[in-house]
Fold each of these.
Amino acid sequence: MIKGMFSKPENARLYWKEFMHQCADIGMGSLGIVSIISLFMGAVSTVQTAYQLVSPLIPKTTIAQIVRDTVILEFAPTLVSIVLAGVIGSKIASELGNMRVSEQIDALEIMGINTKTYLILPKIVAAMITIPMMVTLAMVLGIYGGRLAGSASGILSTDTFDMGLMQNFQPFNVLFALIKGYTFAFIISSISAYFGYYVKGGSLEIGRSSTRSVVVSCVLILLADYFLAAVLL
């Protein structure tokens, strides 16, 4: 499927329009759920970390360091991508599956359009641009949510939290999270497009292929998460 995507576009302007539509659809359609999850993810991390660090010998700035590294390394890229696999992946699979069942893809091919390039390539490229952006947003909102929860619950002040954020910070962690984001974005978009494009049958098969694409994407995300951590860290 991926090999068949790389051909000369019949109408570059039409492809650009589809690409921009997919960027807006994937990015703006998932912005709300990503923001909510990220804020509460950081808040819960702060509260649970403070609950476990009961020793008075451990400075409170350690809470901020743990929340920062946990959000950047794992929560923001992996948890957000698993959620997006359900939101974006099921949408892509259902959309392409409906076009296949209703013979819209066959009609486009009769018109001489490479449907893999026109329907699938913009989705994959748009996902690989917007999903890392949402991972970056999840990092920021997750840390801010932890900072807000620490101040609101009286666990530690905002100045103490900010001091902990700056201690022992490794910029490579952000790069590692972005590498995860690009990898997971490709997995989500390509797997869901494959299951949707090659669906056979009726509406029941569309639902099954959509569910299957989410399950396979989540499993591959977890496997890729382990291998990337083993290789890069």
Amino acid sequence: MLKLIKMKDKEISNNGLKGKRIVLLGGTSGVGLATAIEAANEGAKVVVVSSSQKKVDDALVAIPQNSEGYTCNLTDEEQVKELFKKIGGFDHLVFTAGEILQLSELSTAKIDKGREFFNLRYWGALMAAKYGSQYIHKDGSIVLTTGTVGLRPWKGWTVAASITGAVDALTRALAVELAPVRVNAVCPGVVKTELWGNMPEADREALFNDIGSKLLTGKVGEAEEVAEAYLYLMRGKYTTGQVIVVDGGSVLV
């Protein structure tokens, strides 16, 4: 029989991020920046990391005070190792780093370019977990980033689908290996971010409108909406090894 326990003389807070230190690799733009801003607004101490000093500087203007920023080439193992030495202890690690999408069909795919994408999105995430996990405080977590193209690939997305599939598996493996550190991932659908910046604005908006009209939500995602999933996974002390899909219902239609 379930036993109800009455809590006495204990303040219960719904804000599990207040006072926490959160490191966001790729936290200077798109979903990463949105997550950094939302977490800071809830009282977290945010550390953003990018390969670009200008992006770090711009992000620190947008994020509430008491935030920090560092530059690092996340594909360079020694730099990643040194980065975490500089940062020191923290509570949550979020990996949203990625490059502007460059898609092509298999017949014209540039294999070397595909390796570059893997170096950042997969090996970068693995190295972040390897060197960052030893600095994570008790009840801390890691949140990686994958994508719905791994669940429902489109023509021309072979490399991207392969990477997201690899990160899905990495998430589950790390949850086992690094326990009790929790490891989860967010799987966004199409979101309005800088990752689509290689397209002319008119073409980009037309694409968003076309895709959005076919989704169950009637629109593509905003970075702030996807950020909520990262916040949930950082707070959720009973959630690990999970990939949370935030896609407007794209895998259903």
Amino acid sequence: MDEPLRDQHGRAIEYLRISVTDRCNFRCVYCMPVRGLPWLPREELLSYDEITEVVRQLAPMGLRRIRLTGGEPTIRPGLERLVAMLRSVPEVEDIALSTNGVRLPALAARLRDAGLDRVNMSADSLRADRIARVSRRKLDFDPVASAMAAERVGLAPIKLNVVLIRGVNDDEIEDFARLTLEHPWHVRFIELMPVGEMGAGGMERVVPSNEVLERISTLGTLTRVAGPARGNGPAVYHRLPGAEGTVGIITPMTHSYCESCNRVRLTADGRLRTCLFGTHEVTLRHALRSGEPLSPLVLTALASKPAAHELLQLRVGGLSALSQVGG
């Protein structure tokens, strides 16, 4: 019997976030430098077969949930092929996608048909000029239209992730919350994490969760509710009166949720990171390509998974950009 995926603190690991590319068609101010980063050489990227083999080996050990990330995962050609390959692994119960949404109208149906379950979409503004400012790209992108494209083909629950930056988009909190009155979407406000260019401002640009909830409460009395049935991670959810959807709060800076962490991350070049902001990682690519079993490496990595991140001390595990690990 395979040894279960469990870290040194007794937390069961059932969730793998897989970065399929380090590239992105955005240059969001909180995620990647405007000049980009040195891209990984093609030969260092894990192939779809190699990614699937990682999942095949970890699934009997307890892996049940997959999230595909980037960079921007939808710019890697043939992403629906990978979704179908992962869907063929019997133990996998849930496959989700994190995306900026630009290509969702074109790809949503194909991804759904391949076996994708649901979508998390970044949406840092509802205003075209501000989207261009935050993403530092002009792509005529409408996040509401992209979310509706995903909804039409049955990708659910749909979550909109809003990274709040004081002085940039915090005046749109109420506008985003109003979306939940009209759509069965889960709008999640995420506290800014001080990585890369955002590190210089420290806590000054962070909009704390209590302020967010106070602002939304001007629209109606908020009721604490359970999160969506699938993919209920670190967010705390509330509902406005009569709303179809919910508003959620994710608080990496003001309230740690590390004690319930059940995830690890696989980078596009095959490094397994046990904490988004930790320094410990192991390389799986060489073992994969030489046909060696992965379980000894994975279990060794989990034995060093930290109890909590050190973001509050502004330690970010050597990251210069969140795009390096898919968030």
Amino acid sequence: MSTTQKVPFFDYSRLFLDNKEVLKAVLEDVGTRGAYIMQSDLVKFEKQLSEYTGTKFAIGVGNATDGLELSWMAIGLEKGDEVIISSHTMLATASAIITAGGIPVPVDIGDDGLIDVDAVQNAIGPRTVAISPTHLNGRTCDMDNLMQLANKSGLAVVEDAAQALGSKFRNKCAGSFGDAASFSFYPAKVLGSIGDGGGVVTNNRVIFEKVFQLHDHGRNTFGEVKSWGRNSRLDNFQAAILNSGFQNYESVVKRRRAIAGIYHSQLKEIDELNLPPAPDEDPDHFDIYQNYELQAINRDHLKLYLTENGVGTLIQWGGKAVHQWESLGFQIKLPKTEAFFRKCLMLPINMFITDEDVYYVCEQIISFYRN
């Protein structure tokens, strides 16, 4: 019989402890140069971000929510404009549209948990101006069909790629399909900073220039004030940390895919579980496994059992989809999304856990269902 292990869902202290010497060196370098705001480290990071995602332009911003808001403002979202989103997303996807003056229209998900293309098509109305697909858990949406629909209908596309840096659909990176995209560098992300951070990418120079002005008090790249703006700049210290993280990012993604592979191999025979796709299951998708989210029968009891046996888990976003927050004025039913949220559960997947930890988690899940 296995002895009880402790496998936290995510140990934030280890972000510092496991990288203490590297982070101290980065802090000393930035501090010695007095390079705190919009310095060479940020320029380098923005260049890395655009090159990595296969886009022409990148801008470091305060956080991914700001990135979405600034993208919508740059595109010219107007009061009353409707934007179709997946209801299976963080509230920020919707709130960014509200802040920019628009109206989010949540729709249902497909069998993969991502926005359903048919549901998007059925939701297009006279006030629809855009689509905002969310690439969740490190998996990219079916962007070929979404872009075909957007182009046919004359709709803009802003990708919520907060969880998808390096994720690909048909060998093209998340964030490189639409008019603009926003990434998150929140500490728990695959590429995380020590605090909030975000980035906007685009292939459109006009959008780039508008976002740049909006994120730095209306100033353009030459420092000339061209419009009203605000302050949402990725600080240079965080940019330097992210540059350091980029050096071994491919190995981090490889490790997360290996963990996902173990979960799949150990849990695939349990009929009570619906697992995410295995790393090489679908040639159209390259998943980075920001999260490992499955669906489980008797989910709440499973979660309690795992907690009692030292395993940390998470039910994302308070266990509700966007449209289920009735206090925000939504009065719709989305059956597939609601069914998903009755069963969804995230297992630990990060750089701090060992293979032994992963096998232990699987043993506990197998034990729960066998007993």
